[in-house]
Write a structure and sequence with these properties.
With about 350 residues, the chain is of the alpha/beta class. It has 2 domains: about 150 residues, 3-Layer(aba) Sandwich (Rossmann fold), CATH 3.40.50; about 110 residues, Rossmann fold (3-Layer(aba) Sandwich). About 45% of the residues lie in helices and about 10% in strands. The protein is built from 13 helices and 8 strands. It has a 4-stranded parallel beta sheet, with helices on both faces. A 4-stranded parallel beta sheet has the order 6-5-7-8, with helices on both faces. Helix 7 runs antiparallel to helix 8 and helix 8 packs parallel to helix 13. It is globular. The chain starts with a helix and ends with a helix. About 35% of the residues are buried. Keywords: Signal, Transport. Belongs to the bacterial solute-binding protein 9 family. InterPro entries: AdhesinB, Bact_metal-bind_prot9, Lipoprotein_PsaA-like, ZnuA-like. It holds the Pfam family ZnuA.
Length: about 350
């Protein structure tokens, strides 16, 4: 009798061990259904096998006009970062180590060229070309020779320097709405090559913005064609392409850089010219102190007004939600007023 009891207990114990082993090796149970028959949310471990969202193309631009053109073409398909902060005059700006890293980490680097960004050659030398595509927006555009101010005591040396280095080119092509369209197209081409999956979006965005630039060009043609005067005096030689496009004559107080100080002889020539042409408005710009323009205006008994080279947005521009198109429309209104006095 005791033997039979021991056998029964042994069989019962063996059965319990087998059952326990089976439970420990079974697949984990799914989460219980939530109210309404929906399954409970997955845990972080459950979603770890899902593919990550695609990383957007990163575009780094040198200064404001290139930023605005790139932003218009990119739309929401790429992230656009501008290097030069708002309110900073870009002619003599130099990038920091952090700025250089931003360029190196970008998928596309967009700059104007034609000597506008004096630091660009150094930046390009350090780039990994297989990683970052480069857009020189002025490439292929016929450039004008620029106006550089010379010191009277160094007149001959200045001529020798210009001869040895070649003519100084005017980089301010974005102020001509027709040439701005070419810069937009160069940016569009680069984005389509770098991100072919969004090619149609880039083309659609570029076409829409170019249509706005075409309307701007028409507004300038219509608004300036019947102007009483054709000459205007401005603080620095930024408006040569615009003047050429619409049959005007720019008379700059300084050369291509707004920081240049004109010689007394140069100032005298400008004052005499302005008197002969009955110029009653002297234009200055937003990112540079207007001292020289005010000096000329005082000598003439003229007033001053803003003609914006759009090299960077000021806080006031941002507060008014102004962009490239809006500022160009303001420039047109300023020119119409001055040329019809």
């Amino acid at each position: 009798m005791k033997s039979l009891v021991k056998q029964s207990l042994g069989l019962l114990l063996a059965s319990s061990l087998v059952l326990a082993a089976g439970c420990s090796s079974a697949e984990p149970k799914t989460a219980p259904a939530a109210a309404g028959g929906q399954t409970a949310p997955q845990s972080a471990a459950d979603t770890s096998s899902k593919p990550a969202a695609a990383t957007k193309l990163k575009i780094v631009t040198s200064f404001y006009p290139l930023y605005e053109f790139s932003r218009q073409v990119a739309g929401d398909k790429a992230d656009v970062v501008n290097l030069i902060p708002g309110g900073v005059e870009p002619h003599d700006w130099e990038p920091t180590a952090q700025d250089m890293k931003q360029i190196q980490d970008a998928g596309i680097f967009v700059y104007n060229g034609a000597g506008m960004e004096s630091w660009a050659d150094k930046a390009l030398d350090s780039l990994k070309k297989e990683q970052t595509a480069v857009v020189e927006a002025s490439k292929g555009i016929e450039l004008m020779e620029g106006v550089e101010e010379e010191d009277e005591d160094d007149h001959d040396h200045g001529k020798e320097h210009a001869s040895a280095e070649g003519p100084v080119l005017d980089p301010h092509i974005w102020l001509d709405p027709v040439l701005a369209q070419k810069e937009v197209q160069a940016i569009q081409d680069a984005l389509e090559k770098a991100d072919p999956a969004n090619k149609e979006t880039y083309k659609k965005n570029a076409d829409a913005y170019i249509a706005k630039l075409q309307q701007l060009d028409k507004a300038f043609k219509d608004g300036l064609s019947g102007a009483k005067h054709k000459e205007f005096v401005t603080q620095h030689a930024a408006f040569g392409y615009l003047a050429k496009r619409y049959g005007l004559t720019q008379v700059p107080i300084a050369g291509l850089s707004p920081e240049q100080e004109p010689s007394p002889g140069k100032l005298g020539e400008i004052v005499q010219f302005a008197k002969e042409k009955q110029v009653k408005t002297i234009f200055f710009e937003t990112l540079v102190a207007p001292k020289v323009a005010e000096t000329v205006a005082k000598e003439l008994g003229a007033k001053t007004a803003v003609l914006n080279p759009i090299e960077g947005l000021t806080d006031d521009d941002k507060a008014k939600n102004l962009d490239y198109i809006g500022i160009m429309q303001n420039n047109l209104a300023a020119l119409q007023s001055a040329l019809n006095e």
